[in-house]
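Contributing new records

If you add data, match the layout below exactly. Sequence lines come first and carry their own label; structure lines follow with theirs. Keep one chain per record. Anything else will be rejected by the validation script.
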Amino acid sequence: MTITYFQAILTGFVQGITELFPVSSLGHAVLLPAWIGGSWSKFTSNAESPYLPFTVFLHFASALALFWVFRKRWIELIAAGLGSAKKRKTEAGRVFWLLVIATLPVGIIGLVFEHDLRTLFAKPLAASIFLTINGGILFAAERLSRKRLDPVIGSANHEIAEHITPKVAITVGFGESLALFAGISRFGVTTSVGLLRRLSHSVASDFAFLAALPVILAAAVYKIPEALSSQYASMRPQMFVGAGVSFVATYFSVNFLVRWFKTRTMYPFAIYCFVIGIASIIRFM
């Protein structure tokens, strides 16, 4: 099996858009081939499919784009985090270590269970059900959280350091692990936790962007050697084309979302998940 340039471009575009939208890129990676059908459907049903190593490349490109958008912020956080280890404690340093704490649970669970969960639940019907559940998570977070659409007083680091405790960071890490189920959005779960901790939409999404990068990057780097193996050498040009499209799409989608959450909510994404999820359940039952 191989992946054509058209398939690489379309899949890279969808991956780049959905990676940081709260609608689950993994769920779309499962549902897109199933909806199109034909040779596409073999991507997730054929054990010899190169689809998994191909999507690894796309995730790596998304991680690079996410880092590029927040590069200045990450440099600040890393410097402050290392400085806080030498007793120079700052709000940025506290945010850095909260991100480290949040990454540990999802990293450990991912290493242990990722293969089994992908084998069991990376099916169109399962992804459809989890995408619908994802819509419920987003809707519930909006309903249960107190709306704070007014401008935040102080920096995002100050808001995160004030409202996110180490215990909550661990909860975020376990919540991010739900994204191992195709259809559940890592970004959506993290933003929902932030909202329930009374962060504004802008700051909650900011924390979600930061928390997403280590997980996406680590998962991609872990599987890159397999994607670069000689077994997939003939498909490498398509991988790089798809990765380029994914990088550009992720870059623009992140910038769009940063502006969106300054004044808007997750309700439209919840509705989208309900509509696509329920339609897919009907389609694949």
